[in-house]
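[User]
Protein folding is very new to me. Any chance you could explain this protein sequence and its structure tokens? I have pasted everything here:
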Amino acid sequence: MKPLVITGIFLSILFIMTSPATSFVKDGCGTGECKDCHNLTKEEAVTLLNDKSIEVMDITFSEVPGLWAVDIKQRDKTIPIYIDFSKQYILTGSILRLNNKTDVTRDRFIRLNKIDITQVPLDKAIIIGNPNAPKKIIVFDDPECSYCMKIHSEMKAVVEKNPDIAFFIKMFPLQSHPKAYEKAKTIICKNSAQLLEDSLAGKEIPPPDCDTDEIDKNIALALKIGVQSTPTLIYPDGRVIPGYKQAEMIIQLMEEDEKQGKKK
């Protein structure tokens, strides 16, 4: 997603919207709640977006004052955008919380585009941790990916800190790494986490000694569920989270998963 560029006009609008002195005296809310005097229907949102091919999935009040979060369907993904209460501005891209630099839009995108984890077979996955651990994180991994090398040590650290978490690694060699496909086959043939670790460390590993279509199946599966890069983590609740993460963040995201599960 392209980063959000906040113009001076928009900053002024947000200032007016959030100013305790004005409190939406004329065209907005007074002392009541915003939902008491602001409304946006799906039909109206389509009209504002000026594109009848867009399907509006949901409209909620954003955590950012003065904005609706509007979820629209685009191809096979649900994309969060924002419309301001004046219905004159549409915003796309990242919105960051100042206190922790969390990308609000990215978080919403991830939650809107969860996958059904039963689509991902684990019988031939490379496992780090206890195979019977109650909390399983699926990882799409490339044996020549530098960020996969970094996250590999973080996964081992997670398992040491929390043995209830295990990682089930699906080999997903990228086309940008020409030797990765054969290395991935070797790792699958031997079902060896050590060979994966050796490959990530830049060590030579032997050629594959079996004939398997598992790598091709993994590539097709990745395309089907929208995985495009490595490493990509898939949590038990179906959240697809790409990129390198430190052990503490991996555990924190698992705790968020558990909290969401308890709310249901």
Observations:
- The first strand starts at residue 55 and ends at 61.
- The beta strands are 55-61, 67-74, 77-84, 90-91, 126-128, 135-141, 165-171, 232-234, 240-242.
- Confidence is low (pLDDT under 50) at residues 1-28.
